[in-house]
Amino acid sequence: MQWIQLKIDDKKIRVPEKTTILEACRMNNILIPTLCHDPELTNWGACRLCVVEVEGMRNLVTSCTMEVQQGMVVRTSTPDIREARKTILELIVANHDIDCLTCEKMGECELSKYAYEYGVKKDVFQGAKREYELDDSNPFIIRDLNKCILCGKCVRACAEIQVNHVLDYSKRGFETQVGPAFHLPYGESDCVFCGSCLAVCPVGALTEKQMAGKGRPWEVKKIQTTCPFCGTGCNFDLNVRDNKVVGVTSNPGSPVNGRALCVKGRFGVEYIHSPNRLITPMIRKNGELVEAEWYEALELIAERFKTIKEQYGSDSLAALSSARCTNEENYLMQKFMRAVIGTNNVDHCART
Amino acid sequence: MQTLAYPCCEKCNHTASTPCRDYIKCRVEGPLCHDDPDCKQKRQDFLAKMYDPEGLTKQILICTGTGCVSSGSQRLIELVREELVKRNLDETVRVRSTGCHGFCEQGPIVIIEPDKTFYTKVKPSDITEIIETDIVGGNKVDRLLYRDPVSGESAVTYETVNFYAKQNRIILNNCGQINPERISQYMAKKGYQALEKVLQTMKPEEVIEEVKKAGLRGRGGAGFPTWLKWNLCRKAQGDKKYVICNADEGDPGAFMDRSVLEGDPHAVIEGMLIGAYAIGADEGYVYCRAEYPLAIERLKIAISQAEKNGLLGKNILNSGFNFHLKIKAGAGAFVCGEETALIASIEGKRGMPKVRPPYPAEKGLWGKPTNINNVETWANVPHILRNGADWYCQFGTPKSKGTKIFALTGKVNNTGLVEVPMGISLREIIFDIGGGIKGNHTFKAVQIGGPSGGCIPEELLDLPVDFDSLSEVGAMIGSGGLVILDDTTCMVDIARFFLTFTQKESCGKCTPCREGTKRMLEILTRITKGEGKPEDLENLETLAGVIKKTSLCGLGQTSPNPVLATLRYFREEYEIHIREKRCPAHACTALLQYHIDNEKCKRCGVCAKNCPVGCIFGDKNNPYEIDSQNCIQCHTCIDKCKFKAITVS
Hints:
heterodimer, A: alpha+beta, Ubiquitin-like (UB roll), N-terminal domain of TfIIb, five-stranded mixed sheet, three-stranded antiparallel sheet, 8 helices, about 20% strand, B: alpha/beta, Glutaredoxin, Rossmann fold, 25 helices
């Protein structure tokens, strides 16, 4: 690997080759605003917010796409650059539904973060605004195109993380929009509800339906945990407010899955606080299921296994385990059947 | 032997599967594959028949370019053929359909060879007279000759028409002369000889060197040195390389590439073959907009003919060089003229530009090194290689060599395609070739380079037209659109027109182009409606600056040019719109006020009767007045008033 020496804001910096200017800046705690860049997705260079000045280049360049070169001289925060970024933000804001009071994204909105940093007011450019109806057709995701800033992150997440290609740009000019093919409602598209689009949307254009009204980001505590739905071991953050799980958000730091989750992991939290949820073992007594203690239930099971085995032989018993169990649990299950019960009758729901 | 491309006898057994080094020479000057004086005679006779330098037979050339086809030239061909059969002349007089002559406004165009008589605006009812008077009688049909708009004199031949006389047609030379659907006619005009020379005698590096010496620069707009582009692609690492012809001509009013493809498609194919050999590519695409069905059709025919003659495919002319060419029809997006968007479109993706670097020369189509040139650039290549760089360098200026084709339109007498040497002044193009301004109006500006270009005022008309001089004054050659504006054109409105186009065609990817051009357009629209604010001009300039500096692709970066150039040279016109709420050119309808002059008014009431919104009131006893609040400035009252009593201010 070759090392590249360059100067950013008069500071001498050494980074590995193929590093982008943005990455080099981040490695050196130089803050650059971006709305369309995401380390998990391909570099897109669309929002133009991360522009910097490179000596010898005619125009400003996007730091997210430009790789460092030996001896490069970069400036990231001249008045010219800040002015250009401010104008870009003003242009985005002029065509964005300023609905911050009730917007689910408030507090985590990247646009409002940079608007605050650059002192952007909402009424610099007055004129036409997008007017689309709210798309409520997806069971899990609310799509509000009036807030969309066309950064294309959802398009890339759908294509590159989930490899599903449901979303793309359509139309041109001011009419440009992002959505499923033929402008179908989101719920009628081929969406598999992985929610990767949700996870990357920097504004309130894509928000989670079941978390709506359940709490502001700063009121919610994020608790990292492992998904219980299957053995893959995806990590995510439970969003907890007042000791209740209000939803799940993926965490880019998750070693197994990054920000990807499946429909169950991301949206299947309803059962946690469901009144119908079983919380103790149940034993059928006189034809009716009655709540029992664990020791009582386990004793009964052991007793019945023993009787059956004695009466009808080991092979009269069989076990079917679940894909939701971990490898270790599945291993224990077959070991138990073979060593304790004495049968090879083991099977698994995901065998075929 | 029907054409040059056919074998002359059984001994001549050239096929695509038996490639031969001397194929072209053999077909045109030959045969070389066998010695037979009769066969040689046959080929010479064919050539003679085609060009007929002695003038032994008459030929009727009928233009079948898109413009003339639209005005009915196909029907003319049928009628001419019928008429010739009727008079038993079909054996002695040949009828040929040709490509575009560039003077589409005067179409359908019919030329009689060998006299080169130039008939314009020929209608089906004129055919009998042409055959009778000209072909049979040997006289000219005077009423169909072109009449000079300035002198009023009629021009008999092609060359004496001012529109053509001052042109220097190299690229367009075959257009209008040969039948683009016959490879043999291209061969007879020295076609594919450059390829033969290159494959037989030159190394790829020598080809690039020759193009460098010729100083050829990209005709697509930016004027990037062609050799440099080729060399970058040649040097790029890759097991597979592509060449692409950019035929996605999208500038409003520009149709030079269409004409070349329709009129001389083999020249483009030959250029691409030579380029591919120089670069080391074995596959190519012509990306042609689907709105050019005739160009696509002619290209298809040309490609299939070239394949049949072993000029496309494997082991071309037994040189070991392989090249396959495909056509990809675009879906109508202006932005696909941008190279990276064009590549995305060929790959089946939405046509959106990508950030460069990496440049297509390193990572282009399917991630492989790719070289893209536009139609006109490719069409220049065979001429350079056939005649040599020194020959080519005699045209043009030290830094911009060769010729450039322009689409001359607007308020000028002669509109159409003109090919002129680089360095010619705008004044010569507009006033000599274009015949000056239409009617009794005066020249105001010329919009050059389409939506990415700028407006040039009268005082700069003597500027040489080349890549560098124009960019110094805030314009560019662009793809070569020249829109002439006169005193009735409002400069704010013209800027608005071009910006409307760019905004609609913005791919929507990057913020400054998508959102910024919209806001600029809104400001311009406001100004043309008399709702401009004093701070608008500054806002326009700020926005234009940011769009130029931060947009992703060349189209976005140049989109504010029409506004910046008009602000630079016609700022006062903007200020009058804002300050005085009036349009000096009387073009912005929202700013017009209609008045009835009571002294001239005879109170006939015709204006009131014809007013579509009923905003004119009055009767025999009361003077007529226009309610300016409700007037929609439709101009009907002025058109209807016989007494010229209604004026606009």
